[in-house]
Amino acid sequence: MVKVNHKQAALDFLSFVNASPTPYHAVKSGKDLLASAGFKEIKERDSWSSTLHPGGKYYLTRNGSTLVAFAIGKKWKPGNSIAMVGAHTDSPVLRIKPVSKKGDEGYVQVGVETYGGGIWHTWFDRDLGVAGRVMVRGKDGNIVSKLVKVDRPILRIPTLAIHLDRKESFDFNNETQLFPIAGLVEAELNRTKGQTTDSSNDEPAKKALKAATERHHPYLVELIASEVDSKPSEILDFELILFDTQKSCLGGLLEEFVFSPRLDNLNMSFCAVQGLIESVRSATALDDDNAIRLIALFDHEEIGSKSAQGADSNTLPAILRRLSVLPAEDFGSEKSYHKVGNELDITTAFEQSLSTSFLLSADMAHAVHPNYSAKYEADHKPQINEGPVIKINANQRYATNSPGIVLLQEVAEKATEDGGDVVPLQLFVVRNDSSCGSTIGPMLSANLGTRTLDLGNPQLSMHSIRETGGTQDIGHAIRLFASFFEHYSTLAPSILVD
Domain 93-244 falls in which CATH fold? Predict the structure, then answer.
């Protein structure tokens, strides 16, 4: 059984989220953890038939912002089950616009665009850095993608003094009053006095698009260039977001809380990665397993998942189709591909796998708020540090049903460690007079026809720039996911539903 030190798991999560201000960084952080655990990187564009083998551990990425990893049981056969945990790498953020150079009243300002449904007033008066992906022309002429993280406060969105606006509510226009300040025009003029940009010597007079130094403030481009060891003229484009430079930390009188940005949903992404790693840490972990253990961390959930790397794309179906036909360890001739029978009929292996597989859609849940308890259904008030929350909605905003609840309960009860307690679980539904959010669960369930359950760790302040979760819940989720991977192939056949 997997043993987890809850305090250490929380500290490891802090390191993970502090290193991951963007989906690109979150994927890199996940890749680093997987590589350290012996997982090998593969590419979608390559053939897998001779590369992947039962007993192997692998990971791949799409767009640098979606990560899929899996471990193949040594008793795997084509058409067998795949146990999956799905989460997402993105969070509501402010993103720098393609043309961001702005200024007024003597200030250097940066134009930003809202991404997702953030609580935008929480972004005011915070110390903001920038991070993301930069497209750079290398010395050899090739264009490469580099990650950048300016981890110091270079931007700030100041509120208006109460003396000038005494309204009780804080209302503002997202287009005209959400621009951060980056400096003073006079200081910028003094800095550049007598300087010439290197782009005037290196770049042709006419281009399809204006240079980055024209579309954005030159000093911002210079700063980005210095972070990736390049010249400003070599910066062709970038996808940058703003992030709070205050580090995640443990909080509360007894450090029972996690105070952090991006809990939704890097908390579940981290727990998924760690759960998979813990489930295969033993050298014999895959010896008797006839299933595949898989995690999928998608980009773009916060804006509907409809992108090439979102959950509502072909990412997971394409990967599952390729995995479903992987040969067994003792595969030695073509007869296995042509034998008529439920187990080895390769023409239906994909459909057979989907019909017996299971997906845990892992996205953060709402903990009861002590100051707004009336907003919660009276008998469904999840508590922080009381374990993952099973999310249920009769209108299928969540994909959970009774067979899935029974399965997860069995998984939680098998997650004992050296005589320890089972993983605690909680149930949640929204009030009938409240709207209900949704997750990747329903869309993947519909696209795949695979049994699915929605769950997530409880938190407060969801979609704020800084959120609150539980220290113990990280360890609870890791244990739950590890137990799910360890026991799915034996538990699933005992819960009979057509």
Answer: Aminopeptidase i, Domain 2 (2.30.250)
